[in-house]
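INFO worker-7 received task bundle
INFO bundle size: 2
INFO processing item 0
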Amino acid sequence: MAAKDPALGNIRILTIAQALGGAGPPIVISLGGIVGKTLASDPAFATIPVSLYNVGVAVGTLPAAYIMRRFGRRHGYVFGALIGIFGGLLAATAITIETFALFALATVLIGLFGAYIQSFRFAATDSVAAEHRATAISRVMVGGLAAAIIGPQVVIWTSDAIPGVPYAASFIGLSILAFLTLLLATRLKPVAAAAPTPASGGRPLSKIVRAPRFILAAATGVVSYALMAFIMTATPLAMVACGHSVGQATLGIQWHVLAMFGPSFFTGRLIARFGKERIAATGLALIAGCAVIALSGLAVANFWLALVLLGVGWNFGFIGATAMIADCHTPEERGKVQGLNDFLIFGSTATASFLAGALVHIDNGWSLMNWLVFPATLAVFLPLLAVGRRAARA
């Protein structure tokens, strides 16, 4: 792409927007369970706000895809950022007046904003050739590396900024990040598609979802993301239950998110070298390795190393799955296929978060959760290896 190519400029804007808007989830993940435990009448409800954040992402994916298809990426992202601004302010208000239900509603709204953030990776592929899609996705995901620093640091710097109302300022900070994302969205330029888009809507969605290629791609994304959320949601609570501090849990999440996005500097090149399926399979193997480390002990080092492996595994699995999905549709089918894919991913992620909140509080719940990782990863790992080998031979 030429230096003045609007597509390249958009990728740069999306990368910065990912860094700012993508800092919201670490704030919700770090504080959602802690604030939930403070406000809820029953400690078993503590992780509901985090789970509802994922519900918001899942519920928001299809409407977000429609809005962006109808009004364009730029207008869609501005609208999504407005939701994020309101959601952060509502969360701060809920903490101030100590209302659990209002806080839970706020995390749903922040999740709706997250649905737009998640589509940045697809927006990067709108106008690039097929062979450059994985690299474009990786470039935008690099912004998550900065988000991994910004989000937890906002929590650390602002947790007690408002005397007597801990954590309220952290969600005001989230609103400020959403506002900066809005400003960036207004700078996106319209770009021509890499190939002319026919006027028809393409194949029926019912036909696309029956294709083995789509099934494997979607399953890879679902397993990678749902298992990541399953373990990550429970980890801060498990660490605190084991006698570790909230600060140690927050830093663990920061290392985890760094591991999620740090490999994006080279994931695209690895995919180009070894293939999408093999890199995604490697990601699932690393997620299984996370469970092995978690089952080996309850020291801070075990939790942190497990979170790092979980993050790298998610990166390989999710970016690999995203590149696989990009091969499953034509330009005119893009919106509905991407929207359905994200709905499946974040619907399963929300379910995994709810299960995590329930399981982590039972006897040996942390161990049970990690044992469940193995059959889930194996179910997708083997088909990925088979497809990867066929692709390599071809």
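INFO item 0 finished
INFO processing item 1
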Amino acid sequence: MSEGQRLFVGGAWVEPDGGHYPVTDPATEETVGWAPEASPAQVRAACAAAREAFTAWSRTRPQERAAVLGRAAEIIRARMEPYAELARAETGATTGTARAMQVGVAAARFRRYASVEPAEWAVAPQINEAGPMGKAGVMGALAIRQPVGVVTCVTSYNNPWANPAGKVAPALAMGNTVVVKPAPQDPLCVYRMAEALEAAGAPPGVVNVVSGRDVAVGEAAVASDDVDMVSFTGSTAVGRRIAEVCGRDMKRQLMELGGKGAALVFDDADLASAVAGIGTTFSFYSGQICTAPTRVLAQRGVYDRLVGQLAVYADRLKVGDPREPDTVVGPLISAEHRARVESYVELGRKEGASVVAGGERPPMETGFYASPTLLADCTNDMRVAREEIFGPVVVVVPFDGEEEAVALANDSDYGLIDYVWSGDVARAFRVARRLRAGGVGINTVGRNMEAPFGGFKKSGVGRDVGSYALHAYSEVQAVVWPG
């Protein structure tokens, strides 16, 4: 980019009051572009623009809203190459991940919500006897999904395409208007998404994007009186702060927070499948993903073999330039985050864990790289086993039987997605039902993109994805009449 990115407020591209700051390529440490620093006043203006646009957009026929989302999906697909290159440069994701899992998933999510689903459904008639409320009669009812209003979408840095698309698309489909506050590390992709929606015919004010490194930017987007709901993806600590602000004004919340996914591997498991699934922690976004199976609980009969195979798997992964086709593990998002991940590895050593793979910084001249690291001989009370590291680090804890495995898995502040590997399908499903997690993968780390997504405990509040996202971005209204 030769000049600084502008904010997108009320359908206009606006110069930021706070100037611009550099966006850094995590692989090269070079400047990708210049992101705008909004002032709190500009954020409030974006919220006001969304409020002004809400009435007309919410009354637009669902088919017309769907058509805008469908056109946006096609525009994103048509611009796949430059969009994926920007995503790779901003996040350090490999080229394949940037194309398929970032831009590709974003386009698919806009296409998913371009289909119109019924917004109302009948409630079984009720026979009322005569009384203080009136004569005897049959009461009919409809339950109707109504848009919430203005939604502030605060998005994560690990996927600046799929994450905001998963919020913006269903919110717009339901008739809401949005203010997107992207992560400060990689906001430029979100502005490209706004361009696609503008080109697709989204009216002024329906989509607004404001960015900045100052915490006052996010605070203004959450606290504005024009905002009815906040959808947030990020750390539990920040989510708690947002929830406090929302609670004062009774704003709706959708929170997708941290995770420390337990992967229960039983003696009868297919070890090749388990190793490949757990190994995605090392490679997928370089471990910067809340759904990763970072806490492995291995039954003692298979413990040594699993640790050995995971160590071999980790050591064979190529760490390097994400532009190279054979690179599997790219850099972390920043030097500060790499220092945090490395501090956890050192903490694991001090706590008594054995570093059986990785543990040392790769010999790269530039870039924020960290080696895939495996910590064995862990116990569930170690900080490395309890706290979210958000990097390519896996810890392994042994267990004896099923009861202990379930107890260890549930002994966590988090409960986003857990995993079970076992050749006994009946046991796998039995164990899954006992896990206090919003999702459980049985012999897979794959996802069904229509299944509800969200967490128990400190991993979040609410559910989205598929039809569940339409519920998340709506209020339910009951209309009752005498039959």
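INFO item 1 finished
INFO post-check item 1: The radius of gyration is 24 Å.
INFO post-check item 1: The chain has two domains: 7-257+459-482, 262-450.
INFO worker-7 idle
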